[in-house]
Amino acid sequence: MAEPAKKVAQQTEERLENLADTIRAKFDKVTKGTFRDRIKEGRFAERTDQTPTRERD
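-> structure tokens emitted (57 positions)
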């Protein structure tokens, strides 16, 4: 009885991984990758200083 449960869990995991890849690809297509690139560059990372952006410029 444990074998069928493992098989179902594995199939579900694979489907979710495929779904996540599909969603990621569609999101990148819509945003042209810019949002993801900003995240990778650390744009949305916490700032160490609490000075508002316009004061730093």
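The radius of gyration is 20 Å.
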